[in-house]
Each structure stands twice: as structure tokens, then as C-alpha cells.
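User: Could you walk me through two proteins back to back? I'd like the raw sequence and the C-alpha cells for each, with a short line separating them so I can tell where one ends and the next begins.

Assistant: Of course. Protein one, sequence then structure:
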Amino acid sequence: MLAHMIGKLSLAAFLAFAPVATAQPLAGRWDASVNVNGVDVPFRFELAGEGANIKGSFFNGDERLTSTAGRLENGSLALSWDYFASRLEATFKDGALDGKYIQARRSERANYAFHARRYEARRSAPDAPLIAGLWTIPNDSAKGERAWRFIVHQSGPDVSAAILRVDGDTGALTGTYQDGKFTLSHFSGVRPLLLELTPAQDGSLDILQNGSKKLTAVRAEQARARGVPDPADPTRHTSVKDPSDPFRFSFPDLDGHLVSNTDARFRGKVVLINITGSWCPNCHDEAPFLAALYRKYRDQGLEIVALSFEEADQLKDPTRLRAFIKKYGIEYTVLLGGEPSEASEKLTQAVNWNSWPTTFFLGRDGRVRSVHAGFPSSASGELYVQAKEEFTAGVERLLRENIRTAR
């Protein structure tokens, strides 16, 4: 009888603990991909924690973009990123995660098939050609550009790179050399992109973008020799109709209070007017820098005003924008400018404005002294450092002026 009872207890104990013992923890690094228009874009993905405390992280180079909420229950994984207004829904089965990544974007709703398996180190080819350096990609863009920059960093067969346009870069594309070509990709919750780079005999790079679009990159010195136009200068791309005319704005803040350039808080201050949107990846690149710039110089007379243009549902309830502000520690003024499609008609003083983000530098007299289109991420290396230095130097120069000098 006793033996029978012990047997029943042992079986009950086994059944109670079997799910825990056989369940595979998901924490760790994964090889993931999203399918975008029939193209699989691979990327690094990491999970940490378990149950109601599980978190997932995308990566942009060394930058970690971690979910704001998550849950793992009975093999079903649900993660959300409030500052992207996105979520991941996947099921764990047979050692793999399969599901979908959903994001509300400016003009459409992204719904990408998601797949991931445990990370496995792969052997790289030891004889990779050297492609590190600054390249130029001839390209006629809708923004009037004639060329883009292509920045490449290399360590043996491993490469990281970024395409830098006038509005900003692609984020850090990473990959390696195999079978005569470099395969690089990026996905950090935004900006999915796949590039295949094949060195050509003339020293150029043949680029296949997302399996269909063909581009060519040439060394910067070769571009000059061939008469390829320089990439657009972000400090000259956008201007204003009348530099002697104060820059005017009047928009509500997130609490519905109207804020205008004539308000006392801006009188005699250096003001940066930042045209932005929480849907815009390059605006996410710029926001932490502006937040730090404001903290450093606000006691010396700097104000920053973000005119954030959001989709209609976000204007009604700006949950993503509030999460954007929280993530980057933004303490400067943020106003709701309207929908992105309305920006051009509302920014009537701007000339050739077409880049998200764009920043107008106002002197203490309220006049526009300079304009900077776009903003790169750290993936652009020295050009990212240069952009930050230009912003800082411009602010310091304007802060040294008094109102009489400014006039």
C-alpha cells in the first residue's frame, strides 16, 4: 500500500515538473529574419528573461533596441516596442520561432513574416578582398540628390557598412564574405535592407539591393575622376525664402496648449526648430543627440522645439510619440505639427525642404542662420561624429552672439 502511494506521488511529482524540465528557455542570441516583399532579411536578435518579464532586442550596430513589454506563455511569444508602435507575435516549436512582426508606419502597415533559430557561429572565408573605406554611389533620387555615400568598415571577412543619404543613413548593415561576394543586412525593428556586394575588375562594387535593384559604388577618388557629382551637402540642401524674416510657428503641445515663436520663453534665445516624426528612423537616430545637446546648453540660452508630424491616429492619441519622448529622455518642447502630408504646406518659409529630419538654427533675433537636412546614425562613423560637431559648433556660435550683434 505504502509502495503504491509512493509510486503515485512520484508520478504526480514527475508530471508536475515535466513541463519545466522539458521546456527550452528562449533566452540568448538568435539568427532571425523578416520577409519583406519576398526577400528574407537576416538580422541579430536576442531574448532575455522569461514569462511576463521576457524582453527582445534588435540591434543597430552596438545600439540595443529593447522591447517595452513582453510575455511568454505556453510557447507563445508576444513582444511590443511602444516607441516604434510595433509588436512581434511568434510561436516556439521544434527549436524555431515563427510568427509575424507588425508595425504601423507613416503610409502603410508593415506585416512581415518572422523566423528565428538559435544562433550558430559560421565559418567565414579567409581570403576576403579589402573594401573598407568611403565610396560613392551615383544615384538620382527623388530628393534631387545625384549621389550617396557608402561607408564601409572591415575586419577580415566581416564587414559593417551604411548608405548615407541627405536625410540620414540605412542603419548598420552587417555581414560577411562568402562565395565571392559580401552579403550585408540590417533590421532594427525598422529599415529592413539586404545588400549583396560583388567586387568588380575595375575596382568598383556591384550592389544588388533587396534582390532586385542594381547600384554601383566607386571609390571617392574614382568618382571625382569620372565626374560623378558630389553627394548633397546637408548644410546647403534646404534654405528659407527670406533669411531676414523671423521663423514663425504656432502649434499645440501634447496637452493641447498652443505654443508660438512669439512666446516669452523663446525671447532672446537661440532656438533649434527640429522637423521630425516618431515614425521616422533617422529622427530616432537624431533624438538622443538633441536631448543631450539641450541638457548641456539650455542654461546658456538654448531652446529646442520639435515640430512632430504624425499620422492621424497618433495625432488623436500620440502614444508612440510619448514613448519616443520617454525613451530618449527628451526635455525640450515637442509640438504636434499635423500629418506628414501637411508639412510642406505648413512650412511655408522653407525652400527645398524634403528631408526627415531637418533642423533650422535660429539666432537670438529669431532669424534662420543655417539649416541642416537629415541626420546620420553611428553607423556612418566619422561622418556621424562630424554632424554632431557641426551642430554643436553652430549652437555655440549663436550662443556667443547677443541680440545687437545678431541684428
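----
Protein two, same layout:
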Amino acid sequence: MIETILVTSAYIAAQIFSDITSLKIVSFMGFSMDAGTLIYPITFTLRDLVHKVAGRKAARVIIVAAGVINLFMAALFWLVSALPYDPSAGPQPDWDSVLAPVWRIVIASIIAEIASELTDTEVYQFWVTRVTRQHQWLRVLVSNSVSVPLDSLIFVWAAFGGIYSNAVVWSIFWANILLKGIVTIVSMPAIYLVPDRHLKE
């Protein structure tokens, strides 16, 4: 129970942080990259942890719930940005220019997250029920190797295609793949932090 609460909370928090920071494009190791990629890759391993401790059904619910929460967050940010500043409060930081949602990025991010994480769920489930439950690190590697490219492909083209040049969009894609691959390898040992439960669900 405690493990489920912790990994679920971490998963949803990482999804929220990544969606907020995706609004900024940064330079990383010579690539163009949305800043959300700095935190988002860990969600794939966290999803694996949720799956391992709570089962496939719970993982599916949490993935969709995270998408709904992110959509609600974007709507709240939009509402706050639409409200006028109170002049009696004195000068305030330009909140609107930073956190007012860019709806195309928000929608692209949510679609990519749900599609790739649900795919990750099915690959993970197939691996542990039809291939092997041994070598737990391998289940993380296999499921992420399918879901990470899918997520990156959907997100970068849905969010930035037609806005930036094709070269920049592909640069963002390859930066995503590179960083997510590194995070996958570094985070694989985390799969041993929680017990195996509900894998037949």
C-alpha cells in the first residue's frame, strides 16, 4: 500500500513537472530540446513501478488520471492568466507570459503521454507474463525501448511540426531519445525497489 502511494504520487508529480517545463525550448548537448525532457523520462520507469506493485489495471487508470490532471492544470493556468492583475497589489511578475498554457503543446504532450505510457503498459505486461519474470531490469529496458521513441515522435511533431523547421523538430526528437535512453539505463535498478504483485491482472 505505501509503495503504491509513493510511486503513484511520484509518477503524477513527474508528469505535471514535465508538462510545465515543456513550455521552454533549451539547448542540451548541442540539441534543441523542450525542458520537460529533463524530468519526463523518469515517468516510464515510475510507470513500471506502479505496474509492478499495483497491476496493469491500476497502471492504466493512473496514466489516464495523470492526463486529466494535466489538462485541468492547463485550464487553471489559462483561467489565472485571463484574470486581470490587481493594481492595488503593486508591481507583479509577468506570470502570464511564463505559465499561460500553449494549448498545442499541452494537447500534444497529453496525447503522447497517454499513448506511449499505455503502450509501455502492454509491452511490460506481455514481457512478464509471456516471456520471463526474471531479469527485472530487462522488462524496463524492453518496454521503454518501445514507448520512448513513440512518445517522442508523437510529441515533437504534434507540438512543434510546422512551427519550427524540420531540422529543429528532428533535433528535439533526437535529444529526447538520447536523454530518455540515458534515464532509462540509469533508472533501471529502481525496478527492484518494490515487490512483484498483480502481474496477471
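Residues 2-21+31-89+98-193 form one domain.

Let me know if you want the two compared in more detail.
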